[in-house]
Amino acid sequence: MRVVILGSAAGGGLPQWNCRCPICTLARSEPDRVRPRTQSSIAVSADGSDWLLINASPDIRQQLFDNAQMHPREGLRHSPIRAVLLTNGDVDHVAGLLTLREGQPYALYGTRGILDSVNANRVFDVMAEGVVERQAIGMDEPFEPLPGLTVTLFPVPGKVPLWLEDETMEIGAETETTVGALIEAGGRRLAYIPGCARVTDGLRRRIAGVDALLFDGTVLHDDDMIRAGVGTKTGWRMGHVPMRGENGSIDALAAVEIGHRIFVHINNTNPVLVEGSPERADVEAAGWTVAHDGLNLSL
């Protein structure tokens, strides 16, 4: 199985277009210390030829340009992307669908709840019927988006997308609006969980023994954005478990047998983004890799 991390940042990317926090400032002035990153997305292939795109970032055009595996290879129009899977309906995971509208056939997968949120917005009708086949997938029902690649979706604690929040919103509920994906090919297993509000016993059992885990790294501490002075929301309020602190993911997953441990979906205020920082050294000492755009895995 081959995996390409197309985008490793949370919503807004790094540097965020309107942000002058210390980390965004370093990303502009000293990119060797803070690598710029695009918004969250990965691609997975069983054979290195046909690819499943998981989440369609607003930065998808640049991501496809930056990774030669994703370039057209034959005829006047072609794409190696045969299918797209959504793990939630967040803007930073669905807006890129509008870029993938050039009459290129592919299958679009997601839970019924996620696809309903997309289908309810008519702007996504630019993905014409008969060109993009939308397929709802049930929880714990393995399916093959590509030959040789099996995916099983499972619920993780989360919340509805920001643009669907109302007074009934519940944080931490396990529903079909925020899911993880267990991906299998050639006897190898990858778990992709870019959004998760807390680590539960069920989640630990679900991912035990995987060859690689790509996990929500939005914030280092629950109050990252408050400390940076750029927001008032905690990680929990945004539906993201912190790396460190009470119930942090590093300690919560420490006893779970996992091959590669990689943080993805990293917010621009997270200090682990700074190369050589004490915060980066801490998470690396705990056995985790901080993802960057273009990181390739062969499992």
Automatic annotation (TrEMBL):
Name of the molecule in the record: Coenzyme PQQ synthesis protein B
Function: May be involved in the transport of PQQ or its precursor to the periplasm.
Keyword hit for Transport: yes
Domain Metallo-beta-lactamase intervals: 51-266
HAMAP family registered for this protein in UniProt: PQQ_syn_PqqB (MF_00653)
Classification via InterPro entries: Metallo-B-lactamas, PQQ_synth_PqqB, RibonucZ/Hydroxyglut_hydro
The UniProt record lists the keyword Transport: yes
Family: Belongs to the PqqB family.
The protein's annotated pathway: Cofactor biosynthesis; pyrroloquinoline quinone biosynthesis
Pfam families: Lactamase_B_2
GO terms for biological process, alphabetical: pyrroloquinoline quinone biosynthetic process
Alphabetical keyword list: PQQ biosynthesis, Transport
Highest taxon listed in the record's lineage: Bacteria
